[in-house]
């Protein structure tokens, strides 16, 4: 008797993808650019990998803290007050060192303009 050949089934292959969803990550180029701006010297690849891991853990913790502050306040949107509270808890913002002074010291002018309202002629405040 002649048997018909059937195609072999590939195990584990279904219509849907078996990949785990990946968490969003900060671009390596951005981390490298920011880090090299402050370091101002060459960094080995091994050291940079550690910096990447540390920055990823830092932003995860930062995000969860901001989420906790926002939930505690009964809101669903993170506001500037939450960020300032977190920076106060970290000791970055104090009565002697307000948030605006930190922004002016550490951020370029284009970011300062976005974060700090500026009075211009005609009594208009930007942004």
From TrEMBL:
Molecular function via GO: DNA binding; protein heterodimerization activity
Keyword check for Nucleus: yes
Top-rank taxon, per record: Eukaryota
UniProt main location, coarse: nucleus
UniProtKB keywords: Chromosome, Nucleus
GO cellular component labels: kinetochore; nucleus
Protein family (similarity comment): Belongs to the CENP-T/CNN1 family.
The protein's name: Centromere protein T
Annotated source species: Manacus vitellinus (golden-collared manakin)
């Amino acid at each position: 008797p002649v048997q018909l050949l059937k195609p072999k089934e590939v195990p584990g292959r279904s219509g849907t993808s078996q990949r785990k969803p990946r968490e969003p990550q900060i671009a390596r180029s951005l981390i490298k650019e920011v880090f090299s701006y402050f370091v101002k010297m060459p960094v080995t690849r091994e050291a940079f990998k550690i910096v990447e891991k540390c920055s990823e853990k830092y932003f995860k913790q930062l995000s969860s803290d901001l989420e906790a502050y926002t939930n505690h306040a009964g809101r669903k949107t993170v506001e500037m007050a939450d960020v300032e509270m977190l920076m106060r808890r970290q000791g970055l913002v104090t009565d002697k060192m307000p948030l605006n002074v930190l922004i002016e010291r550490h951020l370029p002018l284009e970011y300062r303009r976005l974060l700090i309202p500026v009075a211009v002629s005609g009594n208009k405040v930007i942004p």
